[in-house]
């Protein structure tokens, strides 16, 4: 059958359509219904997937095959629960459990039905109970040589160990789960679940090296499969986060936009909130505060927290009291091991701006304790940065210089240009305090070049204020933009490509390219990011 062949080729859209066509002719047996459900799931047709798994469940029961019927009920139930339909999903999981008990089956499906219980234990803050359940799940998988179940059990053990603060042991289990995925031992549905869960777990402990490595692997895996839907959006968000850290902001903006477009037809998907927050962060850093606020609010509507980003936006807008009130409330309310360090980083910056040095010191001390439990170069750089900034605010510029130099080295080794430039800004302040004006000016100039290249408008304003002038002295060739060149500049500042600008202005691509070249020459810039920065600084955006 063509549907089965397409399924084996990982052509999920073709498989679903061809199996659906055969189904309409009444040709599908239970096994093919299961294939059709999996294909539907992998193209994001969740309702079709759960409905078809329910049909496959009944078809297996009709054939007297209880074990595969239980497995179909499990996947239907778990999918419903993960998409917010807890009552209906719980009903299917309970049905599967009853069939197991009534038939006294000794099979791998017993392990699958322990997975929801392990997830519930993690959610209620009992990682040890979750870990024990996952050990039992893995033992059942080994007994029946079920690769999917073994990968899910190993994944759960890793997540539970990380939640217990045993990061090194947890990461080892996560890596083991990924071996089964990368060697093709598990089914595509399970592979996608493991990929995304491992990346989120590594992100939670700030293991950015593994996040980057596994995100690249997920991206390659997604590219091999036709119309794959459930995992591609999350992959794009993580790619955007990595690009942001690496200073590839234009590409990061594009990835985050694509993630939002990809997830727009999946209401209720929590990854959409993550994608919206990422877009907000990038707009905030580039000085487009109006759009940043809009995306933070949309993220809230999708159930994603807007802090610390929204508080940092208020700080950038000069609303210091609002920023301080928001971050203090958020610090009090945030307990999660993944969320709290991110909030504390924002807390340090805002409390220092508010002159609350003791509060900032408390946040840095807590970050240091968290970092001590993780092998995370990122967190070590964050702590050094915070410690140096607190010393500077406390009137110890000599000590601040030494600590900030260590932070600069740490950020540089991570290859994080924006954070490296932010440290140089602090080093310039410290050097001025001790009278080393030459070094201060060199640090400011180095930071200015990075911020201009990135299009980091708020940071550029900080640099130029420290340089003692509101903006750079105008270059002789920066004036004289024609009205059309101003239009092109404004569209570049929105992130539009030459093709999009041509469509908007109803001119040719070649004409756009000429306008861009002329504009770059007149402004004395060499990149779209720098042109965008100029547009925002001069109220042309």
Automatic annotation (TrEMBL):
The keyword Transcription applies. SUPFAM superfamilies: C-terminal effector domain of the bipartite response regulators, TPR-like. Residues 474-539 form the HTH luxR-type domain. The keyword Transcription regulation applies. Keywords: DNA-binding, Transcription, Transcription regulation. InterPro entries: Sig_transdc_resp-reg_C-effctor, TPR-4, TPR-like_helical_dom_sf, Tscrpt_reg_LuxR_C, WalR-like, WH-like_DNA-bd_sf. One of its GO terms (biological process) is regulation of DNA-templated transcription. GO terms for molecular function: DNA binding; identical protein binding. It comes from the Bacteria. SMART domains: HTH_LUXR (SM00421). It holds the Pfam family TPR_4. This is Tetratricopeptide repeat protein.
């Amino acid at each position: 059958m063509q549907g089965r062949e397409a399924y084996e080729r990982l052509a999920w859209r073709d498989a679903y359509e061809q199996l659906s066509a055969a189904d309409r002719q009444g040709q599908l047996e239970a096994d093919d219904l299961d294939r059709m459900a999996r294909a539907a799931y992998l193209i994001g047709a969740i309702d079709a997937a759960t409905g078809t798994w329910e049909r496959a469940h009944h078809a297996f029961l009709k054939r007297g095959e209880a074990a595969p019927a239980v497995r179909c009920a499990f996947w239907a139930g778990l999918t419903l629960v993960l998409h917010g339909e807890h009552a209906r999903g719980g009903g299917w999981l309970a049905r599967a459990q009853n069939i197991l008990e009534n038939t006294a089956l000794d099979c791998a499906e017993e392990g699958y039905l322990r997975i929801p219980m392990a997830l519930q234990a993690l959610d209620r803050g009992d990682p040890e109970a979750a870990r024990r359940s996952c050990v039992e799940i893995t033992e059942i998988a080994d007994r029946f040589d079920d690769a999917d179940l073994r990968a899910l059990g190993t994944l759960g053990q890793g997540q539970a160990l990380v939640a217990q603060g045993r990061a090194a042991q947890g990461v080892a289990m996560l890596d083991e789960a990924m071996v089964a995925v990368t060697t093709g031992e598990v089914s595509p549905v399970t592979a996608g679940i493991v990929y995304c869960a491992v990346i989120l777990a590594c992100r939670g402990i700030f293991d950015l090296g593994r996040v980057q490595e596994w995100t690249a692997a997920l991206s390659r895996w997604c590219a091999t499969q036709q119309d794959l839907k459930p995992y591609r959006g999350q992959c794009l968000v993580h790619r955007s986060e990595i690009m942001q850290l690496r200073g590839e902001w234009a590409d990061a903006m594009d990835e985050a936009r694509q993630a939002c477009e990809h997830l727009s037809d999946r209401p209720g998907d929590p990854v959409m909130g993550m994608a919206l927050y990422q877009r907000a962060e990038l707009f905030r850093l580039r000085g487009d505060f109006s759009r940043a606020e809009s995306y933070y609010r949309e993220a809230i509507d999708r159930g994603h927290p807007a802090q610390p980003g929204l508080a940092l936006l208020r700080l950038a807008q000069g609303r210091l009291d609002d920023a301080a009130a928001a971050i203090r409330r958020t610090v009090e309310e945030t307990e999660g091991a993944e969320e709290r360090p991110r909030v504390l980083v924002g807390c340090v910056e805002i409390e220092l701006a508010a002159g609350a040095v003791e509060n900032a010191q408390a946040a840095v001390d807590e970050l240091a304790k968290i970092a001590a439990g993780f092998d995370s170069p990122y967190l070590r750089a964050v702590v050094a940065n915070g410690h140096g900034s607190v010393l500077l605010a406390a009137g110890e510029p000599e000590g601040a210089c030494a600590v900030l130099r260590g932070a600069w080295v740490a950020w540089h080794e991570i290859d994080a240009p924006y954070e490296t430039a932010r440290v140089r800004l602090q080093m310039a302040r410290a050097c001025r305090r001790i009278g080393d004006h030459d070094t201060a000016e060199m640090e400011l100039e180095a930071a200015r070049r990075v911020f201009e290249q990135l299009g980091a408008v708020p940071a550029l304003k900080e640099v130029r204020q420290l340089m003692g002038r509101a903006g750079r002295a105008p270059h002789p060739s920066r004036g004289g933009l024609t009205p059309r060149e101003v239009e092109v500049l404004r569209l570049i500042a929105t992130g539009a490509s030459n093709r999009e600008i041509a469509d908007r202005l109803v001119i040719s691509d070649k004409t756009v390219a000429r306008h861009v070249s002329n504009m770059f020459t007149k402004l004395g810039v060499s990149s779209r990011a720098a042109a965008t920065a100029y547009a925002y600084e001069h109220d042309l955006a």
